């Protein structure tokens, strides 16, 4: 099982605060059945430091190799839309998942439905450059909670949707469970990820996969 969105790197954002916590999360991930991890620290203020995040990845990679030399790790970013617009499209080649064409894009929680037109233009630009756009936790976005047609349109555009596993407990913001369950039942999601900020999120990932894993899109 692949975990393609987590905040496991030590000391770079609001996830693991040091290497000891990172390794506890790593062990919890394996206990939950995870066999590969894409590390996705925040690309947004106040956390983003590109070089520091890569150094943290290399250090984590070395520690993981001591325990499991065959475990697969990949570096990526959870790219906030507003930060990406400030950085510019030229940054896409630095922010996609290393070794693949996947790009994890985080939209704004409180964006109005009309703002989704701006998102669509950016998504089309990324797709035109050859990237597969993955939309992080659409169940958190208030506009999607009110109108699932926005999520359906993202899928029709060719985006992959990623649920954060904490929806099974109501979500980080407290209102994610109902829209996530509806989108699961419609088969709109391609991925469930831990979005882990602490050890406990991996038990939620296991629970979410056991309950909803068979609804995920295979295309």
Describe the model.
The chain is α/β, with parallel strands linked by helices. The protein contains 9 helices and 9 strands. The strands form 2 sheets. It has a 6-stranded parallel sheet. A 3-stranded parallel sheet has the order 1-2-4, with helices on one face. β8, α8 and β9 (189-193) form a beta-alpha-beta unit.
How would you sum up this structure in a few lines?
41% of the residues lie in helices and 16% in strands. With 219 residues, the protein is α/β, with parallel strands linked by helices.
Mean pLDDT: 96
**Ranges with pLDDT <50 over ≥5 residues?**
none
Assign the structural class, choosing from mainly alpha, mainly beta, alpha/beta, alpha+beta, or little secondary structure: alpha/beta
Strand order of the largest sheet: 3-5-6-7-8-9
Overall helicity:
40-55%
Secondary-structure map:
Blueprint: E1 2-3, H1 19-31, E2 36-39, E3 42-43, H2 50-67, E4 72-75, E5 78-80, H3 81-87, H4 92-95, E6 102-106, H5 116-128, E7 132-136, H6 142-146, H7 149-156, E8 160-164, H8 177-186, E9 189-193, H9 201-212
Parallel strand pairs: 1-2, 2-4, 3-5, 5-6, 6-7, 7-8, 8-9
Short key terms for the protein model shown above:
alpha/beta
């Amino acid at each position: 099982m692949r975990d393609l969105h987590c905040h496991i790197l030590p000391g770079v954002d609001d996830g693991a605060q040091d290497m000891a916590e990172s390794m506890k999360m790593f062990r919890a991930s394996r206990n939950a059945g995870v066999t590969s991890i894409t590390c996705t620290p925040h690309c947004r203020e106040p956390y983003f430091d590109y070089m520091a995040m890569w150094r943290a990845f290399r250090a984590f990679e070395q520690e993981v190799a001591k325990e499991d030399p065959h475990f697969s790790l990949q570096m990526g970013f959870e790219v906030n839309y507003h930060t990406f617009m400030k950085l510019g499209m030229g940054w896409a080649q630095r922010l996609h998942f290393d070794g693949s064409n996947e790009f994890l894009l985080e939209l704004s929680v409180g964006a109005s439905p009309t703002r989704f037109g701006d998102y669509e233009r950016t998504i089309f630009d990324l797709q035109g450059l050859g990237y597969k756009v993955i939309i992080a936790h659409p169940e958190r976005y208030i506009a999607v909670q009110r109108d699932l047609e926005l999520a359906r349109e993202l899928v029709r555009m060719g985006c992959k949707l990623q649920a954060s596993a904490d929806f099974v407990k109501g979500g980080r913001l407290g209102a994610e469970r109902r829209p996530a369950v509806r989108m699961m039942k419609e088969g709109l999601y391609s991925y469930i990820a831990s979005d882990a900020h602490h050890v406990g999120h991996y038990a939620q990932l296991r629970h979410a996969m056991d309950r909803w894993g068979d609804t995920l899109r295979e295309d």
